[in-house]
């Protein structure tokens, strides 16, 4: 076994133990350690990615070298390594972009806790990506929930505490269902390692034994994870949590945390249940329907929203809907499209949050009325917001278009789901355009709707790029990432396809 | 020669973006440009425009070039190719852009926000070049969306509440329409051999068999989708709002050229991807013809009732562009020739009309039809130009409007489609009468206002310093004269264009 194979394990442990370390370090050092850990983990993931691409097959790493049924395993293929890298990049950019907000909004004494939480979050995300053991996955799902809660709540005002409580309740409900599902599966198959469960499930499917319990457990796991990733009817916690928490929390939560659960779900479908059984079951159809409802309802809610961050948060609900719609198609292409959308949405949504905070900083508040003309006051943020919006609407050349293209291609030729998919894509595109372009026009209008009476109703200040070099660099990176994903998607698609092939 | 194609798209786009960046950085300083600065701006814009026009036309007329820029995904390249339609369209676009560019100098000086205006002006020229040279559906779609995005700020230009509403409406309708087109592209991806444009279509007969119904539905959705941009009923409501609120030179571009993007997109889909054989005699063709004729009639009626001058012209665009769509819907080569000729004729004429409307607005602040009475005495040249354009739009020889309508009517009569072969020319004729009814009274009242109006003292709105006693600045008059001459020349020697 090559030395590189240790890297995933090292990165999990590194981020796990740097958490407690951050709590005892002085504030400035905690920040540095946190940044360094993310960078190091990113580099390690890049090495792993290069290694796995080289060998062309997934490798299994046994914790403590105990053999399969007893030991704990992590398993890394191309997709896992890539996700690890991608999550690190996004997280780093989010952390960097939100420094100033964090320092202003979080009490001095709690700064350290923030970095503890972020490190734990990174650790749990990595574990969710890499693990080959269902129970380990559950444990890290919980760690993820708790640290996410901390991230929401750390900016102390009424709204965030309420949001965190809501998040806690919904999330724990989801975790409970997930745990039930895992228990059932354990009961049915006698294993907790994903690959072993799959063998047993395969036998069960062939003999037709325990069909209903099997389906129930698959359903429970799906619903549990769907709840945690804010699929439509379970989204009530989301707008407040994203809308009122501090910038880097909102960006990280929206682009990473929910995506970690989705990734786990896809992994469960491939590695635990087996793709054929999923296709045969009705679970996918349910996800498909909820996905479509989410796409539309999320956008409708967003249209009614006046406040920019909450609008972006509702748009997340819609985008999560897209992802579940792709999963619900229950075809290989649908999965590819969904995973591509996980990446594309991760890159775009964090961009939007950062840009929105930049615009808000140049204005008196966050409602569309107060943001009028802010595109001129904070130019880079204005451009970034426009890029993100165009990507969300699905303009060609940006990443959103490619994922829509893939969703549509996945749906073409699907017997029952083609037309609903197309119609949902159509409606949702139009709705997306309605609120995002409205906002873009708004930030570039010189004055509010030609209001001739109040000559100077706009309160705000000009924000120059020089003032906040770090944030500007992060924004530029985000923009570049988006355009690159939009113009050069082919390698990533191929990587996803290869990764999915290694998944099973 | 491949590089030439890309440069002709890239140069105006880059120049436009450069201007926008400059405009952006100046926005907050709120400095009024000094004379020298203005000269520099005009020099830059004119050099860039002339250079890009030269490049684009040379690229067009030096033979069939094609170039793959890059691949969006493996099976979908961004691909440009020059063909007859592209060559034809870019020529018209270039003429109109040059005319409008010259005209804008005094007009936009008065209106303000020049850098922004010229930025989008150049940018949209580049995008249009890319659009007409697009070699497959995806590339075309990409530039189609970009056209919407870069032309929207022109509507938004003066930033009033009305403009913002109109721009939103424009954006919303166009994006919905474009999505209709994209929806079709997703389907065609499966049923067509390739998405590249090829005269006669690339439909894969084996794949289509058994799915004709759904494919017809898809084609219909695409027609409706791209029809939005061409102002076809029932999605025409954005057009009068957007075109009347933009600054006049911008209205001229929007009405003369940008709406034609919808037409070109339909030409590409029907003649170059689907193929006419598939559509002939189907319900799609009949519905399309019906909608086009309805739009021709309704547009004229609405224009007849409208009292705002620019809005009247905008409704007239709704009607006239559907002449083109009707010609295309007949699916015969004769009618198509007429339709494409009308693209040119209407482009030149409508550009001229909006520019005259701009002159009245610029000099006297007139926006209503009634206010134009008696203007013939003060501005005889402009009024004569207007009369000529009006006659052209009605379709009276020897203007070019006559030629295109003649071919449209001929094509319709020879098409042997029951009912429509005679109904079409009848509707066209009625609409021509209505056109005469809403355009010519302005001329009549302009020259013969009656006793009390002619002595009225007019308040000059703006532009006194550039006119210096003449009826209008020469940089505004020359484009009008050139367009008028072109309308006549094309009417007398139409052969040059038919080739």
List the helices and strands and how they pair.
The complex is a heterodimer of chains A (504) and B (499).
Chain A: H1 7-24, H2 27-55, E1 59-62, E2 73-76, H3 78-97, H4 99-105, H5 111-130, H6 134-153, H7 158-189, H8 194-207, H9 211-228, H10 238-244, H11 247-273, H12 275-280, H13 283-304, H14 308-328, H15 332-361, H16 374-377, H17 379-393, H18 399-411, H19 418-443, H20 469-487, H21 490-503
Antiparallel strand pairs in A: 1-2
Chain B: H1 2-26, H2 35-61, E1 66-73, E2 76-81, H3 84-111, H4 114-133, H5 137-155, H6 161-191, H7 205-208, H8 212-229, H9 238-245, H10 248-274, H11 276-279, H12 283-305, H13 309-329, H14 333-364, H15 375-378, H16 380-394, H17 400-414, H18 420-447, H19 451-454, H20 464-467, H21 474-492, H22 495-498
Antiparallel strand pairs in B: 1-2
Weakly predicted, low-confidence segments of chain A: 448-456
State the major sheet of chain B: 2 strands, antiparallel
Reading the helices and strands of chain A in chain order gives: HHEEHHHHHHHHHHHHHHHHHHH
CA-to-CA gap between the ends of chain B? 24 Å
Order of helices and strands of chain B: HHEEHHHHHHHHHHHHHHHHHHHH
Biggest chain contact? A-B, 37 and 35 residues
**Major β-sheet strand ordering of chain A:** 1-2
The total of beta strands of chain A comes to 2
**Helical content class of chain A:** over 70%
Please, how many helices of chain B? Answer: 22
Using only C-alpha atoms, the radius of gyration of chain A works out to: 22 Å
**Averaged pLDDT of chain A, please?**
87
In what order do the strands lie side by side in the largest sheet of chain B? Answer: 1-2
Going by helix content, strand content and strand pairing, the class of chain B is mainly alpha
N-to-C CA distance of chain A? 22 Å
The value of Rg of chain B in angstroms is: 22 Å
Number of helices of chain A: 21
């Amino acid at each position: 076994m090559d030395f590189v194979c240790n890297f995933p394990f090292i990165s999990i442990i590194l981020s796990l133990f740097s958490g407690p370390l951050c709590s005892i370090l002085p504030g400035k050092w905690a920040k540095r350690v946190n940044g360094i850990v993310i960078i190091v983990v990113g580099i390690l993931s890049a090495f792993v990615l290069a290694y796995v691409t080289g060998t062309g097959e997934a490798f299994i790493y046994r914790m403590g070298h105990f053999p399969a049924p007893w030991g704990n395993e992590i398993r890394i293929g191309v997709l896992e390594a890539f996700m690890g890298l991608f999550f690190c990049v996004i997280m780093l950019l989010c952390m960097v972009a939100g420094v100033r907000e964090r320092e202003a909004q979080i009490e001095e004494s709690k700064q350290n806790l923030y970095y503890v939480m972020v490190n734990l979050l990174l650790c749990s995300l990595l574990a969710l990506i890499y693990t080959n053991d269902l129970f380990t996955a559950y444990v890290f799902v919980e760690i993820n929930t708790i640290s996410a809660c901390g991230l929401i709540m750390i900016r102390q005002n009424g709204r965030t505490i309420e949001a965190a409580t809501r998040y806690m309740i919904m999330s724990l409900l989801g975790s409970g269902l997930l745990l039930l599902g895992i228990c059932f599966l354990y009961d049915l198959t006698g294993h907790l390692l994903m690959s072993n469960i799959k063998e047993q499930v395969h036998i069960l499917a062939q003999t037709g034994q325990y069909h209903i319990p099997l389906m129930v457990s698959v359903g429970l796991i799906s619903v549990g994870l769907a709840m945690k990733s804010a699929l439509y009817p379970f989204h009530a916690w989301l707008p407040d949590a994203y809308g009122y928490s501090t910038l880097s929390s909102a960006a990280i939560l929206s682009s990473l945390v929910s995506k970690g659960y989705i990734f786990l779900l896809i992994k469960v479908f491939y590695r635990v249940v087996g793709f054929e059984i999923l296709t045969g079951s009705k679970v996918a159809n349910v996800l498909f329907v909820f996905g479509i409802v989410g796409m539309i309802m999320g956008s409708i809610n967003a249209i009614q929203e006046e406040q920019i961050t909450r609008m972006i948060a509702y748009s997340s609900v819609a985008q999560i809907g897209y992802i579940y719609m792709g999963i619900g198609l229950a075809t290989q292409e649908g999965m590819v499209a969904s995973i591509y959308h996980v990446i594309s949405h991760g890159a775009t949504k964090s961009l939007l949050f950062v840009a929105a905070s930049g615009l808000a900083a140049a204005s008196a508040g966050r409602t569309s009325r107060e943001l009028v003309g802010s595109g001129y006051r904070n130019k880079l943020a204005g451009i970034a917001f426009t890029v993100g919006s165009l990507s969300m609407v699905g303009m060609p050349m940006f990443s959103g278009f490619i994922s829509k293209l893939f969703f549509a291609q996945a749906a073409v030729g699907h017997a029952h789901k083609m037309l609903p998919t197309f119609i949902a894509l159509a409606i949702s595109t139009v709705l997306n355009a309605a609120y995002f372009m409205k906002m873009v026009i708004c930030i570039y209008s010189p004055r509010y709707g030609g209001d001739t009476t109040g000559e100077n109703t706009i309160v705000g200040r000009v924000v120059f790029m020089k003032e906040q070099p770090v944030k500007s660099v992060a924004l530029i990176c985000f923009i570049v990432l988006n355009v690159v994903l939009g113009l050069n998607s082919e390698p990533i698609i191929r990587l996803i396809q290869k990764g999915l092939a290694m998944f099973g | 020669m491949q590089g030439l194609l890309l440069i002709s798209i890239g140069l105006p786009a880059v120049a436009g973006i450069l201007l926008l960046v400059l405009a952006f950085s100046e926005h907050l300083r709120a400095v009024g440009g000094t004379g020298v600065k203005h000269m520099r701006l005009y020099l830059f814009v004119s050099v860039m425009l002339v250079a890009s026009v030269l490049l684009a036309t040379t690229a067009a007329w030096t033979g069939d070039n094609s170039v793959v820029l890059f691949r969006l995904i493996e099976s979908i390249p961004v691909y440009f190719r020059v063909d007859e339609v592209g060559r034809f369209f870019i020529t018209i676009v270039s003429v109109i852009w040059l005319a409008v560019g010259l005209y804008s100098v005094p007009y936009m000086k008065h209106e303000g926000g020049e850098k922004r205006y010229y930025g989008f002006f150049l940018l949209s020229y580049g995008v249009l070049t890319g659009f007409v040279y697009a070699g497959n559906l995806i590339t075309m779609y990409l530039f189609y969306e970009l056209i919407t995005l870069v032309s929207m700020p022109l509507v938004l230009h003066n930033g009033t509440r009305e403009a913002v509403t109109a721009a939103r409406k424009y954006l919303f309708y166009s994006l919905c329409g474009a999505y209709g087109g994209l929806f079709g592209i997703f389907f065609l991806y499966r049923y067509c051999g390739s998405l590249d444009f090829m005269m006669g279509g690339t439909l894969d007969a084996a794949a289509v068999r058994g799915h004709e119904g759904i494919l017809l539905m898809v084609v219909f959705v695409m027609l409706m989708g791209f029809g939005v941009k061409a102002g076809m009923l029932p999605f025409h409501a954005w057009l009068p709002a957007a075109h009347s609120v933009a600054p006049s030179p911008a209205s001229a571009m929007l009405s003369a050229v940008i709406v034609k993007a919808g037409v070109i997109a339909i030409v590409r889909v029907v003649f170059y991807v689907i193929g006419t054989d598939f559509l002939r005699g189907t319900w799609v063709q009949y519905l399309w013809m019906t909608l086009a004729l309805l739009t021709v009639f309704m547009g004229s009626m609405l224009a007849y009732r409208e009292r705002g001058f620019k809005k009247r012209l905008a409704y007239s665009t709704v009607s006239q562009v559907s002449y083109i769509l009707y010609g295309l819907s007949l699916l015969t080569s004769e009618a198509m020739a007429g339709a494409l000729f009308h693209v040119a004729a209407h482009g030149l004429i409508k550009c001229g009309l909006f520019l005259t409307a701009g002159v009245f607005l610029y000099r006297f602040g007139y926006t209503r039809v009634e206010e134009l009475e008696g203007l013939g005495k003060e501005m005889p040249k402009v009024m004569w130009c207007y009369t000529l354009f009006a006659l052209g739009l009605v379709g009276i020889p020897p203007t070019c409007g006559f030629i295109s309508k003649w071919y449209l009517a001929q094509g319709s009569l020879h098409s042997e489609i029951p009912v429509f072969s005679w109904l079409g020319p009848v509707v066209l004729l009625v609409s021509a009468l209505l056109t005469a009814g809403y355009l010519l009274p302005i001329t009549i009242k302009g020259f013969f206002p009656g006793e009390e109006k002619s002595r009225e003292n007019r308040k000059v709105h703006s532009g006194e310093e550039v006119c210096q006693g003449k009826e209008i600045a020469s940089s505004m008059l020359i484009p009008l004269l050139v367009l008028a001459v072109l309308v006549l020349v094309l009417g007398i020697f139409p052969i040059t264009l038919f080739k």
